Amino acid sequence: MHDHPAPGALPAATLSDAMDRFGAVEGIRPLWRGAALSGPAFTVWTRPGDNKGLHAAFETIRRGEILVVNGGGDTTRAVIGELIVQKAKALEVGGIVLDAAARDVAELEELGVPVFARAVTPAGPWKNGPYRVGEPIAVGGVPVHPGDWVVGDDDGVTVVPRARIAETVAAAEQLIAGEAERRAANQRLVPRD
């Protein structure tokens, strides 16, 4: 499916560092500690507060893809909740990243589909459209094209452009090796009297 090494479980922060600190999505956090995702982006651009496009996405999204939604940063209406995430789980979607709000947090955590969002609100969505599926979008100030690699963990979300995946993984692995050396050096420090 992919002709390059995938970022896999590399940390979001390290991947951003490996891209000269670009690619880190602003203001979007996991809805619970330990939520983590890694996979190719499936993009949706929707009108703020409206989730008709998310329902449309489930007609074509593939197993393991990350549903990435530009909802205009709106935090007044939740564009996902328990019922839509049940669909995502049944289709084995790799996770959801919303530049928008979510609700039903306890139920989402129980379902186990990793969800990252700008906010949480009990207010439900509109279902009128319009929307775009499978087009380039922006999420938290970062451009996202279909197939770009999306990684999310406790620190947030980083997007790696598809054309830069191999070089970013290599650079991230070098950074991790350098950090291991610095950690070892820190362990050898001795307090002064």
From TrEMBL:
Its EC number is 4.1.1.112, 4.1.3.17. One of its GO terms (molecular function) is metal ion binding. It is an enzyme of class 4 (lyase). It comes from the Bacteria. Keywords: Magnesium, Metal-binding, Methyltransferase, Transferase. Substrate binds at residues 81-84, 103. Gene3D superfamilies: Ribonuclease E inhibitor RraA/RraA-like (3.50.30.40). Its cofactor is Mg(2+); a divalent metal cation. Homotrimer. This is Putative 4-hydroxy-4-methyl-2-oxoglutarate aldolase. It comes from Streptomyces lonarensis.
